[in-house]
Design goal:
- There is one protein chain.
- This protein is an alpha/beta fold and 242 residues long.
- The protein has a single domain (4-241), classed as 3-Layer(aba) Sandwich (Rossmann fold).
- The chain has helices at residues 16-27, 43-47, 55-60, 86-89, 93-106, 123-131, 143-160, 175-193, 207-214, 219-222, 227-241; strands at 4-8, 31-36, 70-71, 77-79, 112-117, 134-139, 164-172, 196-204.
- The longest helix is centred in the C-terminal third of the chain and has 19 residues, at 175-193.
- It is globular.
- The structure holds adenosine-5'-triphosphate and magnesium ion.
- Magnesium ion binds at residues 16-17, 37, 42, 116.
C-alpha cells in the first residue's frame, strides 16, 4: 500500500472531504487523516469533533504531533487544521518545512496517511501533492469539474513532474457514466500531457451522503450499506492493493 495519499480537485465542492473522511473510516486502523484545507478546515465538522489544537500549533509553536493529533472517534487519527485563518492558507517555506518534517517523523506510526487538501492549485495543494507518494484527483461529471481537474493535473505534472494520477469520479448517475467520464479524462491526459490515469472508483450521487454530513458522522459508520458507502469501501479495498 502506498503510504501517503493527497486527495485534491481543481474545482471545489466535488467531495474531497467526504471521500477522505470515509476512506479513513474504512482503513481505520493505523490511518491518519490530515486536514490539509488549511484556511477552511472541514474534517472536524464532518466528524463532529472540536479539536483544541491544530496543525497551526505544530507549525507556529513547534508542538510535537503527539500533542496535536486527536482520535476521530471512528478508529483513525486526525491532524486537524484551523478555519478562517488566511495566512495559514499560504503556508510559507519555513512553515511547510516544519509541517513535512513533523509528518515524516510520525509517518512510521501509520500504515496510511490521507491528506484532504484545499480545492484549486494553490501552494498548499502543490506542497501536499509533492510530499504524498500518490495523487488522487476527485472529479464529477460536471464540465467545469473536468476542466478544473485537467488544469490541476497539468500543474502537478509541470511543476512536480508527476506522471500518474488516481481518479475518483464522484456524484455519478451510474457506473457507466463514471467510466465514460474517466475514459475521456484518461485519453485527454495521455494525448496532451503524456500522463497516466488510473481509476480508483466511481461514487454514485446518493442522498445518504448529505444525511451523514448533517449528522456529523462518516457515511461508512452511519449508513454502511448505502450505495455511496459501498462504493467508497471498494475504493479503500483498491488502495489496500496498490
Ligand atoms: N456522492 C455524493 N452524493 C450526494 N452528494 C454528495 C456526494 N458527494 C458530495 N456530496 C455533496 O457535496 C457537498 C460537498 O462535499 P465535500 O465537502 O466533501 O466537498 P469538497 O470537495 O471537500 O469541498 P471543498 O472544495 O469546499 O473542500 C457535500 O456537502 C455533499 O452534500
Ligand atoms: Mg473539503
Amino acid at each position: 500500500m502506498s503510504r501517503t495519499i493527497a486527495i485534491s480537485s481543481g474545482k471545489g465542492g466535488v467531495g474531497k472531504t467526504t471521500l477522505a473522511v470515509n476512506l479513513a473510516t474504512a482503513l481505520a486502523s493505523r490511518a491518519l487523516l490530515v486536514d490539509g484545507d488549511l484556511g477552511l478546515a472541514n474534517v472536524d465538522v464532518l466528524l463532529g469533533i472540536e479539536p483544541r489544537r491544530t496543525l497551526r500549533d505544530l507549525v507556529d509553536q513547534g508542538l510535537p504531533p503527539s500533542e496535536v493529533l486527536v482520535e476521530s472517534g471512528f478508529g483513525f487519527a486526525v491532524l486537524p487544521a484551523s478555519s478562517g485563518v488566511p495566512e495559514m492558507a499560504r503556508l510559507d517555506q519555513q512553515g511547510s518545512a516544519a509541517l513535512f518534517a513533523a509528518l515524516d517523523r510520525i509517518a512510521a506510526e501509520f500504515d496510511v496517511i490521507l491528506v484532504d487538501t484545499a480545492a484549486g492549485i494553490g501552494p498548499s495543494v502543490l506542497a501536499f501533492n509533492d510530499w504524498a507518494a500518490l495523487s488522487c484527483v476527485v472529479i464529477t461529471p460536471d464540465p467545469t469539474s473536468l476542466t478544473d481537474g485537467y488544469a490541476l493535473v497539468k500543474v502537478l505534472h509541470n511543476r512536480l513532474q508527476k506522471n500518474r494520477f488516481y481518479f475518483v469520479i464522484n456524484e455519478v448517475a451510474d457506473q457507466q457514466e463514471g467510466k465514460a467520464v474517466f475514459t475521456h479524462m484518461r485519453s485527454v491526459l495521455a494525448n496532451f500531457l503524456g500522463c497516466q490515469a488510473e481509476l480508483l472508483g466511481c461514487i454514485p450521487q446518493d442522498a445518504a451522503v448529505r444525511e451523514a454530513i448533517r449528522s456529523r458522522q462518516p457515511l461508512l459508520a452511519q449508513q454502511a450499506s448505502s450505495r455511496a458507502a459501498r462504493a467508497i469501501a471498494a475504493i479503500a479495498d483498491r488502495l489496500r492493493q496498490l
